Amino acid sequence: MKVNKIYLVYILTLIYFLAFSFNMLLFGIFLFSIILFIKNFGFKYIFILIFFGIYFSFINYQESKHFENAPGEVTHLKPSIDSFQINGDSLSFKAKNEGENYQVFYKLKTKEEQEYFKNLSENVLLEVEATTDIAEGQRNENGFDYQKYLKTQNIYIVVNVNQIYKIKSLKTYNPFDILKSQRRKCINYINNEIPKPMNNYMSGLLFGNITKDFSEMRDIYSSLGIVHLFSLSGMHVNFFIESLRKLLLRLGFRTDQTNKFIVPLSFIYGGLTGFSISVNRSLFQKNLSNFGIKGIDNFSITVMTFMLIKPKFLLTVGGVLSFFFSFVIYILANKFKIKNPFLANFFQSFLLSTTVLPILIYYFYQFQPFSIFLTTVFNILFTYLILPTLLIIFITSLLTGYNFEIFNFIFIVLERIIVFANGIFKNPIVLGKPSLFILIIMLLLLFLLFDYFPRKNTIYIIPAFFLLLLLNKWDLYGQISMIDVGQGDSIFLQDKFDRKNVLIDVGGRLDINSTEKWRERISNSNASRTVIPYIKSRGVGRIDILVLTHAHEDHMGDLLEVSKEFKIKEIWITEGALNSKSLVEKLKKTNTNVKLVHPGDKINIFNSYLEVISSLKKGDGGNNDSIVLYGNLLNKQFLFTGDLEEEGEREIVNEYSKLPVDVLKVGHHGSSTSSSKEFIELIKPKYALISCGTNNRYKHPNKETLEIFEKNNVEVFRTDLDGQIILKNKKRQLNIKVIK
């Protein structure tokens, strides 16, 4: 019976992913699995498979209709009160109107308005003037897809509010709204009354609310591979529910009474923590277990129930990890018995971390080997010290009004320990994103290993697994990518077999400081969403040469962020770039060898080289002082021009009578001050690559520049329309792929 159920769940999962994202590999596996299923179990469960197949397809069909019937404007919004996020003068929240879900953005007009929404905890109805739009999709290979992320929450439309005319209080008896309101009140109390950094831990661990203030520390926890401690799930549910269960039993309640009483309390706890998928899963399984349904039966019923009531749960990273962790725990339960509790905890962490490694690198591209030890230690610390302390402080503070600043030192010391640990274990192993095929093979190998361990044959599974793990680091062909960084530049050259990695510029943005303190926003670097995840997804953890073409923010602004994530062997700049105080300060902080380049310097890559051909004289670090690189790559002639303008182009025209170019990286984002008629007629490019932001305020690329390319029969690719641009050599032909 148990085998039947888990096999049924396996087939349902395949149907699930086929319905929501059709894939030929999955389709082939699905057909093969169905044949085996019928052979072993007959047609007993076929009607269940047919039902779920139709159900998933219907949901997918409904999803497509949402975009077709999207309203052009919205006049009323009912916010989800516990979703308010305030960052300077930016307000965002989720809302409903006439059955439709929205993601809403609003620029706050005054400090008083900011304070009002910061402390708002009652349900309200907003009368607004607003426009609607469809969220931006994926722009870089393996990059964040905001549209896909919102779809997992049944949100298809983004609302930009221009004006709020009226705010009306709403009386509601809906239990979900009541719980959201109470959760909001608790979070507001913590933010206003509990000192930092204790308030961040209390808000995150008790109510599942991570604030912008905590973003820097969260990045450090993430780098150490223990950020999951803040993802409310099994550890937190077991602590709260089991503590409550033991209390009720000691008070004299019978076991059956206690189990029934725990059900509504679980609903309340789920609401107070935001009804996250991992908490819902843990609560559901915990209650099933209390009523005697355990093991694989428990897991199978949970999966099928969630497929009905929360059908998109496996389309989120949190959903996949939560259910996969749960599945692995059930599979490994009682397989390895160790009497010492610490060793047992460590060994379980090791097995879990190893088994979920393929899933982790599929989503995050890297692995922190010390996370197994750190997870064991900090899991005990959080379970037996941090969580109980925070709960006691919160309840006592609510009753007495005392903020317990005396205990804040615990969290100050904790953060210092975390920062110290990050200094020691700061370089995770970057493995890259495996293909779906390799991911499936790795998972099968691991389950074979655990199923047949400790037989002699299993020794061969281990090297096969690690070989597959490293495959993504050894690209067989190499490629050149113009990463979509918005209004800026970043180009990545990856040689085959990871022999050499060259990055030309890192992107960045010019921050316009507000004159009013309350308007200032905490923002992540542009590179953290574009350059860094893309390069890591390629299995690259080392940059051999980083070329900063010149000293403007949109080319070198994110240098520090990139240097924290990758080992950089050498940075190339012009002598004139040293005039930039901002760049010099960044270079000092990187502690990296810096080379001042001159014409004739070469970068060996792709069995060829790139040669510096400009700047020909000492400049000031500006556009015409850009490092210009020329060479034969992928059997084509490439010219990378930075932000070179007409003056710099004229120097090249005067220096070279011929300069054949197949692929031109267009200077200065397609501005009218670059790509002059004389320059384009000299180099005669076949393809032009333009890096520029969507609807940028500079109106790049310029209409006149595009006309020059058109008259010279140059095919243009641009990141604002095409997203990332990837160039590969296939069968000695240049293959150009765009992401959008």
From TrEMBL:
Family matches, as InterPro entries: ComA-like_MBL, ComEC_N, Competence_ComEC/Rec2, Competence_DNA_uptake, DUF4131, Metallo-B-lactamas, RibonucZ/Hydroxyglut_hydro
Native species: Floricoccus penangensis
Regions crossing the membrane: 7-37, 43-61, 220-241, 261-279, 313-333, 345-365, 377-400, 436-453, 459-477
Domain of life: Bacteria
Record-given protein name: DNA internalization-related competence protein ComEC/Rec2
Ranges where the Metallo-beta-lactamase domain occurs: 487-694
Alphabetized SMART domains for the sequence: Lactamase_B
Cross-referenced PANTHER family: DNA INTERNALIZATION/COMPETENCE PROTEIN COMEC/REC2, RECOMBINATION PROTEIN 2
Localization: Cell membrane
Topology term for the membrane: Multi-pass membrane protein
Any single Pfam family the record assigns to this protein: Competence
Keyword line: Cell membrane, Membrane, Transmembrane, Transmembrane helix
Signal sequence interval, chain numbering: none
GO biological process: establishment of competence for transformation
GO cellular component: plasma membrane
